[in-house]
Amino acid sequence: MAPPALLRATAAELRRRGRRSPLPLPALSSLLSSPSPQSPASSCPDPSPLAYRRHLITLRRCPRPASASAFATEFPYSRILLPSHFSPASPLSTSSSSSEPADKASPPPAPLTWVDKWIPEAARPYAMLARLDKPIGTWLLAWPCMWSITIAAMPGQLPDLKMLALFGCGAVLLRGAGCTVNDLLDRDIDNKVERTKSRPFASGALTPSQGVGFLGFQLLLGLGILLQLNNYSRILGASSLLLVFSYPLMKRFTFWPQAYLGLTFNWGALLGWAAIKESLDPAVVLPLYTAGICWTLVYDTIYAHQDKEDDLKVGVKSTALRFGDLTKYWISGFGAACICSLALSGYNADLGWPYYPFLSAAAVQLAWQISTVELSNRSDCNRKFVSNKWFGALVFSGILFGRLVS
Fold this sequence. Notes:
4-hydroxybenzoate polyprenyltransferase, mitochondrial, ubiquinone biosynthesis, about 65% helix, mainly alpha, EC 2.5.1.39, 22 helices, Tetracycline Repressor, domain 2
């Protein structure tokens, strides 16, 4: 035990130093740990008054630690009472230090789309349901229609601009109707998948009855477009509704829902030709339709790799799960079949030479997608999927210029 005189001197120094800065812990510990002359284990002689004075001089000369904080005057004994890894919170802050990693881990907010900026709040869930904020699906549905209408044009002439506009509007409506049907049937699955749990039905923004009413509105507008076509096209167009309504169920029964989507999304390859010619030429439209199906198997398999972990959890199927580690081999084969079918269709339609350089550029774009996609990276899968609008644009440009010089 320290002598009483030493304790009194230490207490006096603590009172004096506490008003200015915290007492250095090394000096205090060395002082208090000095062996007592009364301790039987100690071999030190009895401390003299001169030794006490040396201790006080040491206390006065010991420099203030560089790590002392700005709040030292409010926490004069924090270095003694608190663990070394603990730093007292600022009295001006109400948040704990543990909240900082949580803030860093939180994902950045999604960028605002034109739907968020321009659509009224009451109509925003319906726009999201129709995927107006994600136009890539509309492009993928519209391109086979545009290919077919353009390839059906007279040699040396531009395609029918009215038909292009009608089919463009029809692509927006039919794609929106297909998404509405899909979300209605999958609302119990979407809330279990990370990418889809914010959709209007899964999040509760819309009720199923509201969705059915919106679906009726979309189909009514689509009927208005269909009635402007010839009778042959009306029958052919109406028959596609069977595919539209049954597609969302395929992922429950088969590992090939992407092939069924190809049958649905490329129906415009048949319908566009029929709208111009009032008939079907199998030598031209069947290779074009086959090319579209193979193209869909490429881009939608890449797209499905975003959800493969969630699909396994909820028990739905896809070609991403079917192909597994062999995905790139499979989609390379479908990509080659797509290009060959497009070449055959253009040859049978007597398209001019400009068609083939553009088709070669489209083949390069498709090969780039397949060779560089990181199937375990969701953002890269989505990036490659979205890039297919440029593949469709290259094929359309080739058909357009090929028809103008034929």
